[in-house]
Design a protein that fits this description.
alpha/beta, Rossmann fold, 2 domains, 7-stranded mixed β-sheet, 14% strand
Length: 333
């Protein structure tokens, strides 16, 4: 699993962490222009910076409970349109004006809260009547599949229906549900694409590049039980829809080949399971047929014994004697 928070004081470029975190924030890219945005649990401010400077929000109020995170945000992602605040999210009604935000975005936060109900009620109160809410939640039941395993920083684990049900109690019917998952494919990149040898995560955030993408139909059985996280969006009107989006990075072709091996082996495994089930079914059919044959044999044996019993009876002997006498009388005529 990725780190809980991106650390921008670390100069090392950690591509998987960056991809995972940026994918969530990128959903708001086409919604926040000229909007007043609350970034609840902003971490070190990279998402708030993108919203303000790259995606042209009117203002961003960025709140996090970690003083260290807020100080790092002020160091690395300063903007005249961003106000960084260190505060407990379950008490922000004391510092925020009701009905003052067009968009509230809260990513990977709800699982950390002692009282998520309090937080959701606050969101409802500070949101403008036609405002939009975007909330994501990790699928910890996939990341930690053994019951004894859990994320030490998470106070709650949610299935999709639990996450959705909790949020809908306070925010109303969800407009759109999405899930986060990995993507794989082939891309066309410039031969001279800049390497990351001397690039930090901060540099990359400040100079994001966008590419054309084409998604193909899913064939790998991806669903809400096998995804990385859930994401709910509230407040969209009938004309609005958040499009599917992807944050990708060019990787070694070996990764693509290994995935091909996985798909092939998975297909072979499925066929093997089918064959094993077929053998079991045939075994059951053979056992059932053997049971039927044994029953028929038993019935046949009982019939033979019954016939023998009849043949040895006095009635049967008299019957045979009668037919002999009758035959003799017929011959004397």
């Amino acid at each position: 699993m990725v780190n809980e928070r991106l650390n921008f004081r670390d100069e090392q470029y950690k591509v998987l962490d960056l991809v995972d975190h940026l994918a969530r924030y990128s959903l708001v890219k086409n919604l926040c222009e000229n909007k007043d945005v609350l970034d609840a649990a902003c971490g070190e401010g990279y998402g708030s910076f993108l919203i303000a400077e790259s995606w042209n929000a009117k203002s961003v109020t960025a709140i996090d409970i970690s003083q260290d995170a807020i100080e790092s945000a002020r160091e690395n992602f300063q903007s005249s349109k961003i106000k960084y605040i260190c505060h407990d999210l379950e008490q922000i009604e004391n510092i925020l004006t009701p009905k003052s935000f067009d968009i509230v975005i809260s990513l990977e936060t709800i699982e950390h809260l002692k009282s998520p109900e309090t937080f959701l009620a606050i969101i409802k109160n500070i949101l403008k009547p036609d405002g939009i809410v975007i909330i994501s939640c990790p699928n910890d039941y996939w990341w930690y599949q053994n019951q004894e395993d859990s994320n030490p920083y998470h106070l709650s684990k949610y299935h999709l229906n639990e996450f959705q049900g909790l949020c809908q109690q306070y925010l109303g019917k969800v407009s759109q549900i999405m899930i986060g998952t990995s993507v794989i494919g082939i891309g066309n990149i410039y031969l001279e694409t800049e390497k990351t040898d001397k690039k930090s995560s901060k540099d990359i955030i400040s100079n994001l590049q966008y590419a054309e993408l084409q998604k193909l139909p899913i064939c790998d059985g991806i669903d809400s039980q096998k995804c990385s996280y859930f994401l709910g969006i509230w407040g969209l009107n009938q004309q609005q829809q958040v499009k599917e989006n992807f944050v990708i990075y060019p990787s070694l072709l070996e990764v693509y080949r290994q995935y091909g091996y996985y798909l092939n082996n998975n297909s072979l495994d499925q066929h093997l399971v089918w064959l094993e089930n077929r053998v079991k079914n045939l075994d059951n059919e053979v056992q059932e047929t053997q049971s039927q044959l044994q029953e028929i044999h038993s019935q046949l044996q009982q019939a033979k014994e019954k016939i023998l019993e009849i043949e040895n009876s006095k009635f049967w002997k008299l019957r045979n004697l009668w037919f002999k006498v009758k035959s003799m009388l017929y011959l004397t005529r």
